[in-house]
Design brief:
108 residues; mainly alpha; 3 helices; 0% strand
């Protein structure tokens, strides 16, 4: 009896993909939370500029400040992404090892 490598690899890939799919809502929720935290300020900046209440220089400066804060907050997404990637790697590795162990038991 031969080892069904395709089945083992497909199972491992499915496990890794499932781990990513299950974690994706966490990343989306975090991004939404960051956006909502800045939404009103960005709207007010845009409306004030459109109304002529802010000079271009002031608007550009205020927008740059908002962008800087957003960048810092969004750097936390890299931490989440690394955690998601690690879950996928762990799931893939476990499924591969389990599949290979099961296949070897059938042969031996």
């Amino acid at each position: 009896m031969a080892i069904d490598w395709d089945a083992i690899f497909k199972g491992a890939l499915a496990a890794g993909a499932h781990a990513v799919r299950d974690s994706a809502p966490q990343v989306r929720d975090f991004l939404e939370q960051v956006l909502n935290g800045h939404r009103q300020a960005l709207i007010e900046l845009g409306e004030a500029r459109a109304a002529g209440d802010l000079t271009k220089a002031t608007f550009d400066s205020e927008l740059a400040d908002e962008e800087d804060v957003l960048k810092v907050e969004l750097e936390a997404v890299t931490v989440l992404a690394k955690a998601v990637a690690q879950r996928a790697i762990n799931a893939f590795s476990k499924a591969f090892q389990d599949g290979l162990s099961a296949a070897i038991k059938l042969i031996v």
